[in-house]
Amino acid sequence: YQKLFPFTCTTTEQKIEHAKEIYRKQMPVVESDGTLICPLCGGNLVPRVAKRGASAGKKFLGCSNYPKCRFTYDKP
Predict the structure, then answer these.
(1) Which of 14, 24, 43, 63 has its C-alpha lying 20 to 30 A from 70's C-alpha?
(2) Between vectors from CA 35 to CA 31 and to CA 38, what angle results, nearest 5°?
(3) Residues 4-19: what's their mean pLDDT?
(4) What are 45's strand-pairing partners?
(5) Which of 36, 41, 20 is nearest to 73 (CA)?
(6) What is the DSSP string of 29-54?
């Protein structure tokens, strides 16, 4: 606790900027032509269908650089 406590003493502006940065890393980038780009590696996001698990059969967007990049976006 003592080691981590100093990291919690930040200004409101720093907290807001941190939240914005996290949001940017989780949202795909939209190009001018409408294509979606992976925020982690820069690859295109392509439509895929889940084959296994609780989400089997559901559509989502996955990075074209899979399996190197495992970014997914399930709100197309």
Answers:
(1) 14
(2) 80
(3) 89
(4) 63
(5) 36
(6) EEPTTS-EE-TTT-PBEEEEE--SST
